[in-house]
């Protein structure tokens, strides 16, 4: 059904007369919501960064820049941070931006109903000193706190009160999932989920516009070949991602540029590590046994996946963050080698000499070639006697299914929003509690990691911090909490004459787009 | 083309058919003969797929990912294996996948037509023979359904069925849901034809006679009227078969049909379409050519049958 509606969307798009500086871009995934606190995923946060703004933001080179805060400084004795807010900023509906909105956005984004709550787990309290000064008091010294809130977007208190959107609707719907009222450089003009989303420049924006757009239309196109055809025919100005198999062709095609990079996203397999039984109810859950998880990690032939499905344009991953990222553990850079006999022996040792059957959940429109990779994993696990049922689904229902524990094993891609190895520990490795381990769907739990996380967050000495991060990386590898597969490449296709800026977090900012005259 | 294989065990029946009016028409229609030959080859290939196919594409443990994207008739750069029609992204042999995929396409097509035929004939007989309210209700429902494109009805049924089946059975159920969805979208034609024919037949003397000796209504419908309305049904069934195969391919192409681990021809075409721009044409071209050959020859056969059974064209 979704595919059909996309086809319809595309024809509608083709039929529209285009304005001189209208920009049309497409991606495989529609941002699920327009609520900046409801879903902590790149498609949502990246899109909403055009509409909403945080106190700080990231520049073209990922450095932290002032946004709604003009400056910030640590509080005395490492007690937190003080932010000085920008004056004279208005929301899209005209109401003024003040400290009240910051406090309100804190309350909203840190509530248990929000998907962003873990960003605020180090926060003890938030206090407005006056209309334009906010103090964020942390439970312990937190040197990277400003980095960790670059995607915390500020919402107007009056607007969310008036529209009864006081709390984010993670899997449901409310006014804020379909409407937006930020301070950012673009206004949300039309929102038609799954069909198209239209933005127009905010003429009252406080910043200097670097773009020359008058209108920007986003269309999700789930079928990669359709997206490439749309780009080549000029119906679309930019697609993200370009299917890996078409990268070589687009590089040679006239009128189109291919922009390559490496995303900071690690693609990995996760396991159900809490349910006593398999999803099918056919028996006890073998993934509770570390040896079974290790057998899986030894049976997945990552070099073959990279060679064929990823066509040599991705790097293998050994841990939850890619090499080169702050906090990456050089000491744990080795991946398990492919060893089918070893894997079979481990399964036999764990009591499964004849293997077992289970379900693998997977997206089919979220990561590059995700469904193909999962299919290949199914074939590879079949070699060690594991009979895998693959359930590949659109990302629209995926997180809901994972939250409902409807999986034995699943595919996940993680890109650390803070550009630091501490980020995945907080979301993926910490035991799931109120505001930590919120994306740890499998329920992996290790007391040592839970104890190390606050220490890592408050450690100021770089080498002591790295030692702790090394320890966590070692534990995660040892217990096979996840099976990291590879680092996803970034491939954008852009029509000639359009300049865009590609950031390694795969955020696409309209405010840096320039169309040729 | 004239040395049509003779059936040695029952020469009498075959000879009678060969010499009948239909046989005469067949002997003088080269298109029909070629079509029949193509259909027979494809159906036999599908039926005996496990014996012919070099691989079992449904057994993931036999796949080697490094064989992925092998070109047709060329040894793979890493493994040295050669595949007649190349391999897809998972290293699956395209030739084997087509044979197995055709089984699913044919199975879904035949079962869907059988279902549509049963439903259509039953409702058509009731409407035509009983008339009155039953006729009005059945035929208005049919009219309403005719205003929807068949593929839309099939998608609707498929969507609902997917919603109500538990996820663990979804893959196994997918084939039967396809049969049901396509069958349900196709019964109207059968019902209309049978109703028309039944209305003509019911005023004939033999029906009146059957009624006089006290046969029940269902017996009259099934034993007396049905055999006399079957020849147009046969024509529709043949043409419907081609349409059902295409409908299945369309649904699978749209991603709502056969699951990727059990690909039908439509699923294969959908997978192959993703590699069209990147130069791996064989993943798309061979399944598409097979679907074309299958649907076209069944359709041509249906066309010939319609003309041959039409007394006005003789």
Automatic annotation (TrEMBL), chain A:
Residues 64-430 form the Solute-binding protein family domain. Residues 1-20 form the signal peptide. GO terms for molecular function: peptide transmembrane transporter activity. It is found in: Periplasm. It holds the Pfam family SBP_bac_5. It comes from the Bacteria. Keywords: Signal, Transport. Its main location: periplasm. Transmembrane segments: none annotated. Belongs to the bacterial solute-binding protein 5 family. This is ABC transporter substrate-binding protein. It comes from Meridianimarinicoccus aquatilis.
Automatic annotation (TrEMBL), chain B:
InterPro entries: BP-dependent_transpt_permease, MetI-like, MetI-like_sf, OppC_N. It comes from the Bacteria. CDD domains: TM_PBP2. GO terms for biological process: transmembrane transport. Keywords: Cell membrane, Membrane, Transmembrane, Transmembrane helix, Transport. One of its GO terms (cellular component) is plasma membrane. Residues 102-302 form the ABC transmembrane type-1 domain. SUPFAM superfamilies: MetI-like. It is found in: Cell membrane. It is a multi-pass membrane protein. The chain crosses the membrane at residues 31-53, 104-130, 142-161, 173-194, 225-247, 281-305. PANTHER family: ABC TRANSPORTER PERMEASE PROTEIN, OLIGOPEPTIDE TRANSPORT SYSTEM PERMEASE PROTEIN APPC. Belongs to the binding-protein-dependent transport system permease family. This is ABC transporter permease. It comes from Meridianimarinicoccus aquatilis.
